[in-house]
Amino acid sequence: MAVRAASGIRPLGLDTLVGLQRRMHAPGTTRRLLVPDGMTAPLGCDAVAVPARFGPLVMPRLPRVGCVYADEAHWWWIVPSDSDYALEWPAPARYAAGAVVPDAPDVPGLIHRPDGTVPYTPPIPLYLALCRLTNTTPTWSRPVSA
Fold first, then answer.
1. Residue 95, Ramachandran bin (φ over 0: left; ψ between -120 and 50: alpha; else beta)
2. Shortest CA distance to 21 belongs to which of 30, 29, 12?
3. Of 6, 33, 87, 125, which sits 20 to 30 A from 138 (CA to CA)?
4. What is the distance between the alpha carbons of residues 35 and 15, in angstroms, rounded to a whole number?
5. What are 33-74's pLDDT values in tens digits?
6. Is 94 left (phi over 0), alpha (psi -120 to 50) or beta?
7. Could you give the CA distance from residue 123 to residue 138 in angstroms, rounded to a whole number?
8. Half-sphere exposure of 92 (CA within 13 A, CB side)
């Protein structure tokens, strides 16, 4: 696959192809978390979901909390696109490329809106908080297998 650039045709990079594939999803009931009016998402939007019981435990562990959405089952944090690059988010967390909430009858409601115009929760502190709560060793601290 290639795209036409000003200087001719250039091949799409692996990162671009992986990003496009990740954002494709099977037909079904899907909802997208949208940033509130007046906010901008210059880095794109993905989301990290955790079971609702973890939500109140995660919030005080973060230096900055961006937009957080919730339904009865999950809390969702908005993070910049590709915040899963080289990270294995600890179970039971779920990473949602494009901030798409699959198989949801309704879009989760906004329960926290940060001051300012940027909706993001910093992904590394969120990742570390979830690792701590789930007793999971961060990816970069695990032994390398031979």
1. beta
2. 12
3. 33
4. 25
5. 999 999 999 999 999 999 999 999 999 999 999 999 999 999
6. beta
7. 13
8. 10
d(CA 73, CA 78): 17
Nearest one of 136, 2, 24, 22 to 83, comparing CA atoms: 22
pTM of the entire structure?
0.77
Give pLDDT tens digits for 96-128.
999 998 776 777 999 999 999 999 999 999 999
Chain centroid to Cα 69, Å, comes to 12
Any bridge partners for residue 30, and if so which?
102
